[in-house]
Structure formats: C-alpha cells, structure tokens
Amino acid sequence: MGQTIAEKILSLHAGKNVTPGELIIANIDAVMVQDGTGPLAVNEFKKLNKTKLFNPERTILFIDHAAPSPRKELSNSHSVLREFAKEYGAVLSEIGEGVCHQRLVESYINPGEVLLGADSHTCTSGALGAFATGVGSTDIAVVMALGKTWLKVPATYKIVLEGEFQKGVYAKDLILHLIGLIGADGATYKALEFTGNAVKNLTMSERFTISNMAVEAGAKAGLFETDEKTYEYLKEQGRADKFKEIKADTDAKYERVININLSELKPTISCPHTVDNTKTIDELEHVEINQVYIGTCTNGRIEDLRIVAKILKGNKVKEGVRLLVAPASRKVFLEALKEGLIETFVEAGASIVTSGCGACVGVHAGILGDGEVCLATQNRNFKGRMGNTEGFIYLSSPATAAYSAIKGYIADVREVL
Amino acid sequence: MELKGKAFKFGDDISTDHIAPGRLFHLRSNLPELAKHVLEDADPTFATKMSKGDFVVAGNNFGLGSSREHAPQIIKIAGVGAVLAKSFARIFYRNAINIGLLLIECDTDKINAGDELEIDIKQGFVHNITQNIKMPITPLPDVMIKLLNEGGLIEHIKKHGDFDLV
Questions:
Q1: Which of A218, A278, B47, B161 is most buried, judging by how many CB atoms fall within 10 Å of its CB?
Q2: What is the domain-level CATH number for residue B26?
Q3: What is the C-alpha separation between A312 and A314, in angstroms, rounded?
C-alpha cells in the first residue's frame, strides 16, 4: 500500500513499514531545545544518570527566547545551557545567531530526517521534507540520552494547492486561511502534507511560513515533498549533498483532502485572541494599531524583509505607531544590511531588534501596554502572548504589516501594489 | 489515590499562555513560584481559591500552543487532581502524561463550576456528586496508563533502561 511522506520517513526510522495510529519507537536524527525549555530538559536528562549525549553533534541548544537576557533569572538559565553544551559537547547557538527554527533550516536539518524539538514550531523544518515535531522537555531529555522516542504515526491530511496568489496575497494569508477554515484543533494529531500544482511555485521561504504554522491547526507536522527548490536552498546553505528525494506514493491514503485555490485568497488577518479567528481584509472593521512587529520564525526571512522594504521605501511609519523589525537570524540580518534594507527600515522610523523571539513570546523587546493593539507577522495571538493580557494581537503577512505601519491602521496592501 | 474535589471551570482553547504566561518566563527555573500563578491569565483567582485535589474542568483543545512542559508541571505542583476536558492539544497531552499529570477526556458540559466530583479510573467514570450523575470517560491508551502508573517517562526509562512500551 502507498505511503504518505510522514509514513515513509517514520517507516525508515522505525525499521519497518508503519501505518497511521501505530505506536512506534523511532530513531531521531536531531534534537533541539531553546532557553525556555532547555534548562528543564537538562534537569530531566541529569536524572537519567547518563555520562554522555547519544549524539552531541546533533543536540542543539538555542538561546533565542530571551536574547539578550532582560533579567538575572534568565541570564542564569542561559548559563545552564552554556555549561551543559561545554560539558557534554552539544552545539550551542548563542544570542544574536537567530530564532531556532530559522537556524535549523539554515544549518542543521536535511530532507528525510526526523527532528524532535522542545518548541512547538519545530514543524517549520517540514518544509525541507523532514519529519519535524514539537514535544516537551522530558521527551527531549530522553532523546538526548537514547537517540530515540515513541511516536504515534499520524494520519495525513492532504492540502492540495492550485492556482496563483493574486497581488498582495502571500503564503501567510494562505496558512491563516487554512487555519481559519479547519480551526485551531482541526488537525490535532494529524500530519499536513502540502501538494498540488501550486507547490512548485512556492519559494522555500513561503514553504517555511506554511510549515511553521501547521501546529496552529493542532498538527504534528507540516510536510512538503522535496524538489528543485529544496535542492537549490540546500545548495545555497552549503548542503547540496544532503538533498534527497522525498515524495508520497501516488496511491498513498489520506484521511482528508482539502483543496485551496490560491487565486481566490485575499489578504487575511487573525483577530484576537485565537489564530483561527480569521477575517479577510475586506471583512475586517477599522482597527487602529499601536505597534507593528515584523520578524519571527514565521516571517522574518530575507524574502519577507525585501517585501517590507519595498513597501516602506520613501515612506514614514505613522506617528504614534512603533515599528519593530527582528531579522530571523544573523545571516538574514547581514543579507538585509548588504541589500540596504535595514537602512530603509530605519529611515522609515523602525527600530531594529536582536534576531530572536523576544516580543512574540512576551518576554521582552516589545511588550504591549494595556489596551494596546499590535499587528504582528508571528504565528500566535493568544491572550497574554505579547506579555500583557490587556493587549490585542492581530496576525498578518509582512506586506500587510508594513503597509499598516504607514497607515496607522490595519490596511489593505493591495492599494499600493 | 483518592480523586475527589471541586470543579473549577474554564472555556475552550485554554492555551499554555493562559496556564504559564510568557511574561513569567523568568520563573520557569522556579516552578513552585510559577505554580502560584497557574492559569492566572484565564482566572486570576484560581491559584488562591483552589485546594489540593480540586479539578480543572475545561472545554475543547485544552493546552494548545507552546511545548512548554512547565504548563502541566505547575498544574501538578499546584495540587490539581486531574484536568478534565472535552479534548486536549497534542503536545500538552504528551507532556502531562510524561510528568504524571492525570488527564480525563469526558463531556464537561455536564459539570458546573463548584460541583463536587469523584473520579474512578478503574471503572472509567466521573461521578458528579453535586448533580448525582455518572459520566463515562474516554479510556487512556495503554501506553499512557503504563507511563502514568510508573510515575512518568523518566521513571519508566530508569526502570527499564530503555523504552518498554511497544
């Protein structure tokens, strides 16, 4: 019987043909934590009395959530990770290197691999044809020690993408639309597999945005097959030799098929306080904003920043609005500098913040005031997400965010494109 | 273990940000302190009003969002007897079992705030003492029961030296 991408990858890692619903012990290729979940993983790992990591070269610790540290308690948590990396030979990604999920696709994860991460947006690497999923610190501690874990093989939803985006509509609008359609728990325990004629036209950056938000529909993974674009991306990162063809069988079984015509989509906004509370820009009432946040693992890549710069060029951020830009990684930051994008942002009135998670996780660098409204390119708008339960978070594409920063309210970017 | 206590009701889509907010990120290295704020952003009075053994009773998709294990950890540390919900988000579910927090899937519409509940895991029902009704619970998968009985994932691995689930 044919297999989906998830079933194929998990079969190879379980050493047998797996079927949905089956419980397996799977070998794990790479494992990651960040500064919010890492110290607890270290703590649990130590309870196992192991003298070494199963695979230190592929145990990666990221300091990105509170980077640089705004408090002594968090500085101490960072020290725990640094000391652990040193003692056990794990890989450490320091302050300023970037958001974990961006760093993982840039430097660490390859097609066909299984990645387990103590961060829910680990599913981002699914765009590379890797089975990547988020778990908790205890699960990670065990994988660090044994190099394997138990998994329930998910059934797969096939998301068939056809047509082309109209101007002003992007991958972010697509994934927000899908989550609005099926709900925040619409794909709980399932793998999403994105396919159809439109996929070959999606850039890797767009695929990362889509895979990143699979978890916002409850999914365990958000997968793409590999193609020339995957190959080119890996080549640019110096890992062309890691390319592998990953593809579902034509007779694979899907639990559900959802068809989306990209040409029918409009700029889409998630309204407070859940990601599935979506409206098209045409349906949205007039919403004045206090802050615009552009960045994160969802939409902080160079392609996103280029779109933002194009819209901001020669314009000023509306008085009374704060625009914060966080390139997703140091690599992205450097590219943006070389291309003159950062100059455009600063001239428009933006503040550039350290590559990391910062405001999106409500730790620092962009906490909302009572009653304030933020339009962000991140993946979550839960109550309290940006550090204040009295704040209101809307989610959009980088283009909508940039244009709205100029207008002072959530605006229709199609007006200027 | 006796599972008897009072119901504290919450709605649908209670996220890990409601349970363990990002603004308290610095308390993650001090779980007993973080536990004093458990579910604060859904009900600011919960941590002070609840007593040991009481139940968190919610709607659909409880625990959605982040993978932070601190969320189930502080519910357990606060002394909550079990979380009852119509459904749970995937990562929260896995984390809760790994650390030994009991989760019960059942029709929570039949439970009102303040109801006295008693849970019988073996027989597979929730007894709503206040309303004098018994509700069936969706049985936990065998692997989850095994992990819970052994005190969570770390204890399981320590006991068997490896996974002994499949």
A1: A218
A2: 3.20.19.10
A3: 6
Shortest CA distance to A344 belongs to which of A292, A376, A308, A298?
Answer: A308
Range of the domain at B105: 4-139
Cα distance between residue A88 and residue A216, in whole Å: 34
* Host domain of residue A58: 5-261
The strand pairing partners of B128, in sequence order, are B117, B133
Give the span between the Cα atoms of A168 and A177, in whole angstroms.
Answer: 14
Beta strands B116-120 and B4-9, pairing class: antiparallel
Q: What is the dihedral of CA A96, A101, A106, A107, to 10 degrees?
A: 80
Cα separation, A186 vs B30, in Å, equals: 34
Nearest to A44 among B154, B162, B165 (CB): B154
How does pLDDT run across B87-109, given as a tens digit for each residue? 999 999 999 999 999 999 999 99
Query: For A286-327, how does the pLDDT look when each residue is reduced to its tens digit (9 = 90+)?
Result: 999 999 999 999 999 999 999 999 999 999 999 999 999 999
The residue in chain B having the minimum alpha-carbon distance to the alpha carbon of residue A45 is: B154
Q: Amino acid identity, residue B16? A: T
- CB contact under 8 Å between B28 and A382, yes or no, is no
**Eight-state DSSP code of residue A118:** S
Which CATH number goes with the domain that contains A111? 3.30.499.10
| Contact across the interface for B69 and A138, Cβ inside 8 Å | yes
Domain boundary among the residues A261, A281, A300 is at A261
Q: Is B108 on the interface with A (CB under 8 A)?
A: no
Q: How many CB atoms lie within 10 A of CB A371?
A: 10
Counted domains in chain B: 1
